[in-house]
Amino acid sequence: MQLYIKNMVCSRCKMVVKAELEKLGLHTVSVDLGKVEIVENSIENQKQQLEETFKLLGFQLLDDKISKTVERIKNLIIDLVHHQITVLKTNLSQYLADNLQQDYQSISNLFSEAEGCTIEKYFINQKTEKIKELLIYNELNLSQIAFRLHYSSVAHLSNQFKKVTGHSPSYFKHLKQKERKPIDEL
To answer: What is the pTM of this model?
Structure first.
């Protein structure tokens, strides 16, 4: 059986979800961002307790098809921006359509309706938060960050960053209070 879980955005989330499922006597086959496959065919006996536990931990068990699809889109983008270093062989729309096995136009409309922003804006917001993270860690220069996040140039990265944050990357780097947003709140 597959379970879809909202707000699973990192490896620690996967560990926590797996541990909680095991505490309830459920056996996991695989745990991915936003999706868990379990051996059991039903969770009716554990569903209420699972929902309460997940709520306390900031997760949510998803039941309807729209929520599941939107969460899968978010998780694909989060994984792409925050966890993968390889370059996309296609554009974002084709990547999502291929992974979801759905027409991009329909998933784009669904996402915009459910989230109140476009997939592209969500993708840019995720990239902006990743840029902030990399700037704060101060391990990479702007050229390296642009390369790592697959920007065509430092100027493109800087322009996009400024549109979203109101600051240039250099100015942001020197701010005393650097504001970052949690990934699951974008």
So the answer is: 0.73
